[in-house]
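Exercise 7.
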Amino acid sequence: MLHRIALAGCLLFVAGILTGVEIGLASTVALTLVLIGFVVRSPATLRPGLVPLRLLLFVTGLFLVVQTLGQHGLDDLVGDLLGAEAGAGGAIRAGGTGALLANAVNNLPAYLAGESVLPTGDVTRLLALLIGTNVGPLAAPWASLATLLWFERCRAAGVAVPVTRFVLTSALLAVVGTLAAVGALLLVG
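Solution. The predicted structure, written as tokens, is:
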């Protein structure tokens, strides 16, 4: 039953975003639904240790660092990496830049850094940047909040994850996946 409640919360969140509801409101309503479900169906599973406070503080700090660095030259560097080229070359470059930045600082602030320098009307490169910042982070364990959460849960459960093997396997997948997804974007147009 809890899986269905969580699914309903996710679907409610997505529906809210697609219909233009403010993201804060949509996420709060979805979270409230899921929390009520757990309080009613399985209150013993709720405990403060479920909230990854260190990771949340870390990612929040990354946003602040990237925003500050943006004002001190990062925007220029990201603009140079993205270039001004349109078409397939520009899209591949945007996807690659997104993947590179995500692996350097984390995908959430990386996308914001790229989005801040791309023109809002350049939909293809913005989507390619989004692909790069979401597929490219497979290459490094710190490159996305999802992977950080996954590593944290594995550590909490006593599961050892060999980082070298993870990075070597994931890097290939990140490159191939980013290129394939950007290629699909260009085909669909």
